[in-house]
Design brief:
Oligomer: single chain
Largest sheet: 6 strands, antiparallel
Strand content: 5-15%
Helix content: 55-70%
Number of domains: 4
CATH architecture of the largest domain: Orthogonal Bundle
Distance between the termini: 48 Å
């Protein structure tokens, strides 16, 4: 847990430094292996395959390029398949843009230590990658072993990023972890307010490495056994966690953590690995890592450091210029007004990237499209509290991110533009801003506009505009594109908050390990309610803005293909709204209003709801309430809704028919209860499915068919009405749901 005395500005500085990373840096010996191959005539992508898939920095860069530039990356795609399909010029530019760690030609103890530390981290990553693949091939033969290898290789990219951006701080973390026999995570949280697992997760999301790799990076120090039982994609994290322990036991490389290791035999039990299989994996690991080390040249001693640095700088500069010219030429050829601006900008945005990164992309796009001078875009996500994140774009798209102090006596954004879009001359409005910026603005030619989302200003943009245009013309010109930026930034604000909810929730799950199960269940439900409320509050506004903008654009769009895309946006925002509503209804349902009600009346109402839900009037539902001579004391609407969900599940359990489903009600042995049974003879459930049947969002149907809230919601409503629900089932025989309802 982070030290509460940490200066909050320092933790923001850490995140800003990490957010600036476009790629990890590689080590000199790896660069020395790459450059001759890159410059060779007739260069082929496969010439570099072994080197790239053995180095964490190059692997992450190639995944990122495949995700953002070519669209060929899908979950489980291997490096070799990407190299086979990736444009050769994109690959060359990507490899040459990766920096080389360390300063060549120096014998200082600090530089030698940093080089050794980086090399040890790479060796550890190689060991975890190789070990992960061996474990998966035994424990999960159907799992993509190459994907598991990549997850293991990249599991510590957060440490590599810290070592790259703040090497002295990271060296102190490693030193203290060693002195205290502690985990690096603990020391990182203590001094930085964030640890390498969350840093690595955010980088992986930013670079688009795929959800399973993201989970492995994020959760490999968590209780992966519990998490993987509910999140299938987290099984790779479970494998990587065990591989990390084995690699550390074998003393291959140095991870930077020195805490007491958990027994690999305990971690291996859920994976059904025997002690003999673990020993077999350990025996082979040293040789496999040695083979990969040879490919990377980790044991090389005579590297032409100065030559590599000079050639790398020259080629990297040429590559950047060539890429920039190609992108500008392509954008000039395809530009077609404001719609193209929105399309180009939104294509670079992912909901998982930090808000400041999205703001930087928007400011650069704005400057290029409108040919403006310097720009400062600042965000007010944190309710006008210090600090304020800002991005500055100067000439030729040179960008920097800064943290500003908000003024105490005046609004951060001029009140005239906090609710409605307008353009103001900047003089006399935000003097506090220019006092903190190093960039010089020509105030007489500088404007300020708001970035609105849901009728609220979430930021503002200050920019130099030197063209002589009337104010009303400017307003018309800028309003639509500013609205796109506001909606996109609103989405990243909401997504960022949900990411923090998820991180807190995962931490909470780990902490409940030592609590009694009934107490943990109540706490988790409370956490779920808090997350649901936050999700609804933070997502509904940007979703409504996105839907509204899509509707507005669709009404004026004549291109059928673009119109179809806009319709898809509207449909997906409606689907997201439905998911949020379902989660809210589950986590925070209305309190019941119980009354004495005849059970037959409730069942008849449930049958009618079921017919509407599954869109059929021909369901074969057989009702017998002859042995139930008591009324039940419940909220009839809630109980009818619960029974309707159960009936719908029962009817859908049949392959082709709509029943039969038998509903019987009898008086319980205790005078306080009435017993209701709902019996079908459909497909039934195996033991594993039965144990998860009432979990939220669990569904045995194929992905994308249902949200999996029916039985969970039914159980929730029955419990709220002081009843209970029990399910018994056998595959191919059928399912019986027994409900006890109070009579008084």
């Amino acid at each position: 847990m982070a030290d509460k005395t940490i200066d909050i500005t320092a933790s923001y500085q850490v995140e800003l430094a990490i957010n600036r990373l476009e790629s990890l840096s590689t080590i000199p010996c790896v660069a020395a292996q790459c450059f001759p191959k890159l410059l060779k005539p007739g260069f082929s992508a496969l010439d570099l395959a072994e080197i790239i898939e053995s180095d964490p920095a190059l692997t992450a860069k190639v995944f990122s390029v495949a995700n953002y530039n070519s669209g060929i990356l899908t979950e489980g795609t291997s490096i070799r398949r990407i190299l086979d399909e990736l444009d050769i010029s994109l690959l060359r530019d990507a490899i040459l843009s990766v920096k080389v760690a360390g300063s060549f030609g120096t014998d200082s103890s600090d530089e030698i230590y940093k080089a050794l530390q980086r090399k040890q981290l790479v060796l550890h990553s190689l060991a975890v990658g190789c070990c992960s693949r061996d474990i998966a091939e035994i424990a999960f033969p159907k799992m993509d072993s190459q994907l598991v290898y990549s997850a293991g290789l990249l599991h510590d990219i957060g440490k590599l990023a810290l070592d790259q951006t703040m090497p002295k701080s990271f060296a102190r973390v490693v030193k203290e972890a060693k002195m205290q026999s502690s985990s690096a995570c603990t020391i990182e949280q203590k001094y930085l307010g964030i640890d390498h697992t969350i840093i690595g997760k955010r980088l992986a999301q930013k670079w688009g490495l795929g959800n399973q790799i993201v989970l492995a990076i994020w959760l490999h120090h968590s209780d992966t056994n519990i998490i993987s039982q509910n999140i299938g994609e987290a099984k790779i994290a479970q494998v990587v966690q065990l591989a990390d322990i084995i690699a550390r036991q074998c003393n291959i490389g140095q991870s930077g953590s020195f805490d007491r290791l958990e027994s690999p035999y305990i971690l291996a039990r859920p994976l059904k690995l025997s002690a003999e299989q673990l020993q077999q994996i350990r025996r082979k690991l040293v040789d496999k890592v040695a083979e990969k080390s040879k490919i990377l040249g980790l044991d090389s001693k005579n590297i032409a450091a100065t030559y590599c640095e000079t050639v790398h700088d020259a080629i990297a500069q040429l590559a950047r210029n060539n890429t920039k010219l190609s992108l500008e030429n392509r954008q000039l050829q395809t530009s077609s007004g404001h719609f193209d601006f929105a399309t180009d900008f939104l294509s670079t945005i992912r909901s998982t990237i930090p808000s400041i990164v999205a703001a930087q992309k928007f400011a650069v796009a704005w400057q290029k499209f409108y040919q403006t001078g310097s720009i400062c875009l600042y965000l007010t996500e944190r309710n006008n509290q210090q600090p304020i994140e800002a991005v500055v774009v100067e000439a030729q798209q040179a960008t920097s991110t800064v943290i500003l102090k908000a003024p105490l006596a005046i609004p951060v954004i001029p009140e005239e533009i906090t609710k409605e879009f307008d353009i103001l001359n900047v003089e006399g409005h935000v003097s506090w801003l220019f006092e903190q910026l190093d960039t010089e603005f020509q105030l007489s030619q500088t404007k300020i506009i708001p970035l609105l989302c849901g009728g609220k200003a979430i930021g503002a943009m200050v920019f130099e505009f030197r063209h002589p245009v009337e104010s009303e013309q400017l307003k018309e010109r800028f309003k639509a594109t500013a609205a796109v930026g506001g909606a996109a930034l609103g989405m990243t604000f909401a997504s960022g908050k949900q990411q923090r909810f998820a991180e807190q929730f995962a931490l909470f799950l780990n902490q409940t390990k030592t609590r009694q199960s009934h107490q943990a269940s109540g706490d988790i439900l409370g956490a779920l309610a808090e997350m649901a409320a936050g999700a609804a509050h933070e997502l509904n506004n940007p979703l409504s803005v996105i839907s509204g903008r899509a509707q507005l654009l669709s009404e004026t769009e004549t291109d059928s293909e673009k119109k179809e895309i806009l319709e898809q946006i509207k449909e997906n925002t409606s689907e997201l709204t439905g998911i949020i509503d379902g989660l809210m209804n589950f986590a925070q349902p209305q309190q019941p209003r119980p009354e004495n009600t005849d059970i037959r009346q409730i069942i008849d109402e449930a049958v009618e709801l079921t017919s509407q839900k599954i869109n059929t009037e021909n369901a074969d539902i057989q009702i017998d309430t002859s042995k139930a001579d008591r009324q039940v004391f419940v909220d009839s609407a809630q109980v009818a809704s619960a029974i309707s969900n159960i009936l719908a599940n029962s009817i859908e359990s049949y392959v082709a028919l709509a029943g039969p489903v038998r509903v019987t009600a009898v008086c319980g042995q205790a005078s306080e209860n009435l017993v209701l049974e709902i019996i079908d003879m459909g497909r039934g459930m195996d033991l594993d499915t039965l144990q998860k049947a009432i979990q939220p969002f669990f569904s045995a149907k194929p992905a994308g068919r249902k949200r999996g809230m029916g039985l969970a919601y039914a159980n929730r409503l029955i419990q709220l009405n002081k009843g209970s629900l029990n399910i018994t089932s056998q595959p191919a025989i059928g399912t019986t749901v027994t409900i006890l309802l109070p009579c008084k």
